[in-house]
Amino acid sequence: MSSLQALCSGLPLRPLPKNRGRQAGVPHAPVRTPGLSPAEKQLALRNALRYFPPDVQNMLAPEFAQELQLYGHIYMYRFCPDIEMRAYPVEQYPCRTKAAAAIMHMIMNNLDPAVAQALPGPSSQMTPRLPQFPQELVTYGGNGQVFSNWAQFWLTMFYLSKITEEQTLVMYSGHPLGLFPSSRSAPRLIITNGMVIPNYSSRTEYEKLFALGVTMYGQMTAGSYCYIGPQGIVHGTVLTMLNAARRYLGIEDLAGKVFVTSGLGGMSGAQAKAAVIVGCIGVIAEVDKAALEKRHKQGWLMEVTDSLDQCIKRLREARKKKEVLSLGYHGNVVALWERLVRELDTTGECLVDLGSDQTSCHNPFNGGYYPVQLSFTEAQSLMASNPAVFKDLVQESLRRQVSAINRLAEKNFFFWDYGNAFLLEAQRAGADVEKKGACRTEFRYPSYVQHIMGDIFSQGFGPFRWVCTSGDPQDLAVTDELATSVLEEAIADGVKASVKLQYMDNIRWIREAARHRLVVGSQARILYSDQKGRVAIAVAINQAIARGRIKAPVVLSRDHHDVSGTDSPFRETSNIYDGSAFCADMAVQNFVGDACRGATWVALHNGGGVGWGEVINGGFGLVLDGTPEAEQRARLMLSWDVSNGVARRCWSGNRKAYEIICQTMQENSGLVVTLPHDVGDEQVLQQALQL
Fold it and tell me: Strand 175-181 relative to strand 138-140: parallel, antiparallel, unpaired?
């Protein structure tokens, strides 16, 4: 068993660690089919071997070549460390700086078996769940890499153990380029993932470039070292469902209402817990029996069945009694949608009120979406043996799924795209999702940003989070208390009704999160807050560290899926209609601006959520250590991190964003934003164009 000291000592070469190969009994990434030429295979092998001195290359070359042949990528299984992978208390890391120790804490948290793709159990004991593909360094989303191979992990830990306050570690798509001189105010770590020249940023090119070891798909928080386990997506799903009920059904109480969706993986599995928290009936389909059974054992699924008859029967009972229920259906969601149509056609009764989809449809042909025509095992086999036929079946399945949803939507049923590229891939498959007269980012059904969360983003609210690096639950309890007090004081001081509603939802969330024991791995919390709330919470936490109420530094972060962090025309920026939804200036400016204003580390990614080539997104980590300098960095950086996106939404014509940015300028003389004028006379525009 390795120690943290050994883990920070560089690549283990003399002697080489034993090659234990692929571990049996744990999930592994699907076999990739990059289609490399003989020359490209040689290049991939050369790229992998350059991490190692010549005297060990002869031994490593054959096994690396075999990995490439068998799995489509060189993961370097020999170097998978023999250590309990978890976020250790920050003082245990052998580092020269607190910032570096905090980053190591976050990296190991991303790879922790209890965090990556984890869901906590129903009791005080958290049920471990291996990372989605632990030996392939995939945290979530099917292909969300922390690193491309294990050599990169070892070298990154080594560099972090040596870094000073006047150096910056530079990361190229998982590859630690090295330590470079900088300043104390500069980031300690700068990450870029997947920064491929736009004309070559296709899925086909990605498969080759990843196999060559020169780029990787970091999803959002996998490759930026900011993943905190399931509570992030649980929280977002809770808020989405609450606001969907308000918008579509005109209600606050979801008792007796039915929500149908798919997916019980590390992200999508949150839907089961969210359904229970909001008090509705959630029916979630999952083709992977192992995933479904784990969610059931963990207490997130209350009941499971592999019978459509039983599923419909139980749904009817719960609906009539207004039970709170999370019901897992072991089967394909297309079959479930088609059965709901049959019930409608034979009884006249629409049994579903709200619906969505959380398959990994950003990666539909490599394990993210399973076609209804095949069993789970049949699909896995065909995916590797005949990708072209598999793709055809996936697209036929998407067409059938949309057809069923369209029939149900003729009644009082509301469907939204959950930002997983479902409608985008359905459109590419030829499904009937077109919206007449719409712009390129609009479909027959809205994305959850367009209808549900978009106005929340426009007011500056987004998924703000923090991690207590002491690992002590008591520290997290203190931060929960501080955050609740900050929001309650803001309400008492007087805020707009729409802002008050969001603050109240998040106060409720903090209490529910503690009650439902949503923490796994590091002691982390997430809530949706606006600029004022984020800054006030950060200041309160920093002061608590200074006074000794919190025992160790706290890392502030957020999901990339936020107000300013992501340009994604089919998700985060899908409600921007001035034509700039396909432009990535906001995300890039956010990355640079955070670095200039005091972030401890910053990350910029291609891909994430919607898929490779479809989005540019970025994130940050900011270490609070109780010093006045940390407070100043938090004030500057968090203000920019929110106001950048609000100003962009203001300029695109969003009235709520306009109001928020005007108010912020009144309160902060340092903020001066160009405000757009109304252009409302359509007749003038038409006449001008005729001329």
Answer: unpaired
The single-letter DSSP state of residue 374 is S
Please name the residues in contact with 356: beta carbons below 8 A apart, sequence gap of 6 or more: 259, 261, 415, 416, 417, 418, 448
Alpha carbon of 527 to those of 365, 517, 550, 556, 688: distances in Å?
A: 34, 15, 19, 12, 48
Four-CA torsion 108, 113, 116, 120, nearest 10 degrees: -120
Q: What are phi and psi of 218, to 5 degrees?
A: -90, 10
Instruction: Round to whole Å and give the CA distance between 260 and 414.
Output: 10
Which structure tokens are listed for 92? Answer: 């245990």
Q: Which domains does the chain have, with CATH numbers?
A: 4-212 (no CATH), 230-433 (3.40.50.10730), 455-521+523-667 (3.40.1770.10)
Q: Between helices 473-493 and 531-547, what is the axis angle to 10°?
A: 130
Q: Helix, strand, or coil here: 617?
A: strand
Distances (CA, A) of 550 to 279, 477, 547: 34, 10, 8
Coil vs helix vs strand at 331: coil
Q: Categorise residue 265: left if φ over 0, alpha if ψ from -120 to 50, beta otherwise.
A: beta
Write down the pLDDT at residue 440: 81
In which residue are the tokens 């300098």 written?
Answer: 629
Contact 357, 423 (CB under 8 A): no
602: left (phi over 0), alpha (psi -120 to 50) or beta: beta
CA–CA distance, 425 with 498 (Å, rounded to integer): 34
Burial 63-87 (b: 16+ CB within 10 A, else e): ebbebbeebbbbbbbbbbbeeebbb
Q: Are 239 and 528 in contact (CB under 8 A)?
A: yes
Burial of 685 (0-12, 13-18, 19+ CB in 10 A): exposed
pLDDT < 70: residue spans in the chain: 1, 114-131, 266-267, 691
* pLDDT score for 119: 46
